[in-house]
From TrEMBL:
It is found in: Cell membrane; Membrane. The gene is secY. Keywords: Cell membrane, Membrane, Protein transport, Translocation, Transmembrane, Transmembrane helix, Transport. GO terms for biological process: intracellular protein transmembrane transport; protein targeting; protein transport by the Sec complex. This is Protein translocase subunit SecY. Belongs to the SecY/SEC61-alpha family. It comes from the Bacteria. It holds the Pfam family SecY. Component of the Sec protein translocase complex. Heterotrimer consisting of SecY, SecE and SecG subunits. The heterotrimers can form oligomers, although 1 heterotrimer is thought to be able to translocate proteins. Interacts with the ribosome. Interacts with SecDF, and other proteins may be involved. Interacts with SecA. The keyword Protein transport applies. InterPro entries: SecY, SecY/SEC61-alpha, SecY_CS, SecY_dom_sf.
Length: 446
């Protein structure tokens, strides 16, 4: 306990870190307040939001922090922005023009960011139409058509853009990744209600307190397993040649490149989940054309949904790892600094060796991610309440674990740079890339 208070005191002493944390809390508070502001022209008392709390729409409601079911101005959350990011990154692989733009440095990234924003507007407008048509019943509408639909589309689009802006501000002036934190805070907001609902259902006849305690124990072990997957690393030894400058010796030490088993972070889960929302979105626009295949892909407990979801996660894990970890650049950086992997020739052979190691550890890492992602479906089959089951793995738990660990690592970096003890008594959080051995292997979370 004394260690905890000492760490909190050290955090408060660092002005830059203190300001960043306060800014982050302020921006998140603004987001949570906005999530309770109902769309103009909607009667909150007349809303029939039961459908929005179940199935795949319930998952979307969780990501939006409950805004989806409340018909809030932030009802669509940041998912349109995530979808736009997926499209732009896929274009960066398939279209030479966008590949060239990615290689232009800061100017190219600014152009891609601007394109992502424009695409977000288009996707949000389309989703707003489906949302107004399917989620807001005629009894809840206080304005006549077409004024209600047009005004709601504009406000929902503006709300998504404002949330996107809040996320960018958190990244720039706060601590952690803004978009990730916004999604995480929405998920955490649903946890107390889901916990109480599950406790009440068990206490009132569905097995009693013992099954509930078993569920909590299972949840604990799932969280531990998730942390192991997120934090797991494969260390590659790097030897640096000795240099004699005057009377001093430099180099001659062995360091390690920590390659993460899950170098892509939570991005594969978010990307795959965004694509899995497409069938339900199509079902909103064309209810009459919803066949058995579309209905199965809209049911997150079906075999088709979970199999497709798992395959997408594995594919996106390889894809995102390939664009964030560059073995050739790592090999060149080692060669410039006089480093080499024992037994491997510097240059091309080193790059091929690192690429082979990454491929070998990414496959089991992606399979573990897929296993964790589909665990909620098994929890529901075993009788766990659907809202509480979302925390037994799946996108929700992976985002929570990944974002919390990433934010803690950033806080620890601020402490260590100013010669304070880290958050853990034994030093750096396990899995963090040591500064001296940073050769471009660090991954990114949204």
């Amino acid at each position: 306990m004394k260690k905890l208070f000492t760490t909190l005191s050290n955090i408060w002493k660092i002005e830059d870190l203190r300001v960043r944390i306060l800014n982050t809390l302020l921006f998140l508070l603004i987001y949570r307040v906005g999530s309770f502001i109902v769309l103009p022209g909607v009667s909150a008392a007349a809303l029939d939001n039961q459908q929005a709390r179940e199935g795949i729409l319930g998952l979307l409601n969780m990501f939006a922090g409950g805004s989806f079911a409340r018909a809030s101005i932030f009802a669509l959350g940041v998912m349109p922005y995530i979808s736009a990011s997926i499209v732009v990154q896929l274009l960066g692989i398939a279209v030479p023009y966008f590949q060239k733009m990615q290689k232009e440095g800061d100017s190219g990234r600014k152009k891609l960011t601007q394109l992502t924003r424009y695409l977000t507007v288009g996707i949000t407008l389309l989703q707003a139409i489906g949302y107004v048509r399917t989620q807001i019943t005629p009894e809840a509408r206080l304005l006549a058509e077409p004024l209600f639909t047009i005004s709601s589309m504009v406000i929902l689009t503006a709300g998504t853009l404002f949330v996107m802006w809040l996320g960018e501000k958190i990244t720039d002036k706060g601590i952690g990744n803004g978009i990730s934190l916004i999604i995480m805070i929405g998920i955490i907001a649903q946890l107390p209600g889901a916990f109480i609902t599950e406790f009440d259902s068990r206490l009132n006849g569905l097995g009693g307190i013992i099954p509930f305690l078993v569920e909590l124990a299972a949840l604990f072990f799932v969280i531990i397993f998730t942390i192991l997957v997120v934090q797991g690393v494969r260390r590659i030894p790097v030897q640096y040649a000795k240099k004699i400058v005057g009377n001093k010796q430099y180099g001659g030490v062995r360091q390690y490149i920590p390659l993460k088993v899950n170098a892509a972070g939570v991005m594969p889960i978010i990307f795959a989940q965004a694509l899995m929302f497409i069938p339900s979105t199509l079902g909103q626009f064309f209810p009459a054309a919803q066949g058995p295949v579309l209905a199965s892909l809209s049911n997150y407990t079906s075999v088709a949904y979970n199999l497709t979801f798992a395959i997408l996660i594995i594919a996106f894990t390889f894809f995102y790892t390939a664009i964030t970890v560059n073995p050739v650049q790592m090999s060149d950086d080692m060669k410039k600094n006089g480093g080499f992997i024992p037994g491997i020739k510097p240059g091309k052979a080193t790059g091929e060796y690192i690429d082979g190691v990454i491929s070998k550890i990414t496959l089991p890492g992606s399979i573990f991610l897929a296993m964790i992602a589909i665990l909620p479906s098994f929890a529901i089959i075993l009788g766990v309440n659907s809202n509480f089951a979302h925390f037994y793995g799946g996108t929700s738990l992976l985002i929570l674990v990944g974002v919390v660990l990433d934010t803690l690592q950033q806080i620890e970096s601020h402490l260590l740079m100013r010669h304070y003890d880290g958050l853990m008594k034994t030093g750096r959080l396990k899995g963090r890339t040591p500064i001296a051995a940073d050769t471009g292997a660090s991954g990114s979370v949204i």
